[in-house]
Structure formats: structure tokens, C-alpha cells
């Protein structure tokens, strides 16, 4: 495959998936996973290359490209194809499931919480701006909400995760983690009001609402389109303890619609 074509594939797929997936190989794995998970298709006779080509992620790619991607997935032991008397079975290996979990977020049905909020503050030299940005991205990735430029919050104790990150990446300066009392507050806002604002629950709920209304009305929605639409929202959902989510929040309902 020419370098220019490979770059175009990556750009197109990344755009369609909001950056969650950026290669044809991962796209094929994602489609295979969703198809097997949703409708139980395991026989390759039922899952021909034409089906991949008709999918929203791969509609512009030819059978040869898709075939190479499938062969690569087999060689990397991410999927398995076995001959049987009725055809070839396709299954996702444990390594394949691990790769899927690295690409896309997973809805957490169990969210233990110790009842505290944690504040993360840092003072990193301007000369280490790259390191500071690296820390900010890490705080976002582990579900922290930004209060101010150098002050973040999370309901999950981040001490060990942050300590490990600081050591691994050589982050200079001072980074402090403080525990807010169970009855404590920040400013004039109560906890739920603060969390709703910091984590953007209003906008997030509107997106879940559009997803629910859009996909409950469709009789035969595309498996991939539904999955991509859901995971794009879930990627921005901090998945805080259920006790801290607004009462009207539609996260659970959207998950139910996604699974149906």
C-alpha cells in the first residue's frame, strides 16, 4: 500500500470515529467484534468481504484491502479463523478483546466510591511546558475535571496513578493531591452543582438524549453506526460514581439502548 493511501485511510477512519480508531486493521477488528457481539455471526459465509465494504467505516475500501487487514489480524492473533464442516468460524481472541478495550471506552456498571473528592494542584516551571501539557492530558484521560488552569478534581483517589505517571515521565515541579472532606465544598456551590458544571453534564445529557431518540426509532440501524455514535459520547463521559451523577442523567438508559 502506498504511503499516501495509508495516510488517507488513517485520516478518514480517524475522522469517522472521533479519533478512537485510525487504521483499517483496527476498523476491521472493530466491525468484526461488533457484528459477532450483536448478532452472533461467526460463520465467514455469513460475513463476506462485501459486508465489510458496505460498512460505514470501510465503504470506500476494496476487498483486497479488507482481506489483507483480516490476514493481519489473524497473524497478530487478534482473531481466529477455523475451518469447520459448514464453513470457517471467526472468533475474537483474548488479545483481540484487549485491543478493543484499548481503542474504545467501556461502560462501568460498578463504580465504588469512598465518598471523598480529591483536588490535584501543580506548579510546573514554564520551561517545562511540554511536560505540563502532558500532565494535563493525563489528568483528562483518568477522568479529572478542570477547576482552574492548575487545579483539577476527581472523586477517585488518583495518588498512585499520578505518582506513577510523574515517575515514568519525569514531570518536574510540585504536584499535590488533597482530600476534601465528605461535607466539604469548593466556593459557593454544593457538590452536585459543582460536578455538573465542571464535567459538562448538561451537554453530555443532550448528546445521550439525541442518541436514544435516534436509535430507538430506527428498525434496523447499522451496527457500526450505532456503536460509533454511542462510544463517541461514552468517551467524553467521566463515568463518575452514580451518587454524583444528576438524577436526570441518561447514561444508564443510553447503555441499555446500545445493548438492545
Automatic annotation (TrEMBL):
GO terms for biological process: DNA-templated transcription. Residues 111-174 form the Transcriptional repressor PaaX-like central Cas2-like domain. It comes from Candidatus Gottesmanbacteria bacterium GW2011_GWA1_44_24b. It comes from the Bacteria. This is PaaX domain protein.
Amino acid at each position: 500500500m502506498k504511503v499516501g493511501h495509508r495516510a488517507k485511510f488513517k485520516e478518514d477512519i480517524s475522522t469517522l470515529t472521533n479519533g478512537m480508531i485510525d487504521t483499517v486493521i483496527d476498523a476491521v477488528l472493530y466491525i468484526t467484534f461488533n457484528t459477532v457481539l450483536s448478532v452472533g455471526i461467526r460463520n465467514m459465509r455469513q460475513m463476506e468481504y462485501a459486508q465489510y465494504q458496505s460498512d460505514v467505516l470501510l465503504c470506500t475500501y476494496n476487498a483486497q484491502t479488507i482481506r489483507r487487514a483480516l490476514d493481519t489480524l489473524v497473524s497478530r492473533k487478534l482473531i481466529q479463523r477455523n475451518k469447520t464442516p459448514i464453513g470457517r468460524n471467526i472468533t475474537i481472541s483474548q488479545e483481540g478483546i484487549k485491543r478493543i478495550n484499548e481503542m474504545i471506552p467501556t461502560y462501568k456498571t460498578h463504580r465504588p466510591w469512598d465518598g471523598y473528592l480529591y483536588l490535584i494542584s501543580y506548579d510546573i516551571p514554564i520551561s517545562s511546558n511540554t511536560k505540563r501539557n502532558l500532565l494535563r492530558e493525563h489528568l483528562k484521560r483518568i477522568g479529572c475535571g478542570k477547576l482552574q488552569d492548575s487545579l483539577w478534581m476527581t472523586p477517585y483517589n488518583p495518588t498512585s496513578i499520578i505518582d506513577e505517571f510523574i515517575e515514568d515521565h519525569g514531570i518536574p515541579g510540585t504536584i499535590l493531591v488533597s482530600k476534601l472532606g465528605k461535607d466539604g465544598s469548593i466556593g459557593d456551590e454544593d457538590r452536585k452543582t459543582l460536578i455538573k458544571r465542571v464535567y459538562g453534564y448538561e451537554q453530555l445529557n443532550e448528546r445521550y438524549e439525541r442518541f436514544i431518540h435516534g436509535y430507538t426509532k430506527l428498525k434496523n440501524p447499522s451496527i457500526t453506526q450505532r456503536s460509533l455514535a454511542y462510544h463517541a459520547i461514552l468517551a467524553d463521559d467521566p463515568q463518575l460514581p452514580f451518587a454524583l451523577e444528576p438524577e436526570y442523567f441518561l447514561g444508564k438508559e443510553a447503555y441499555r439502548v446500545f445493548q438492545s
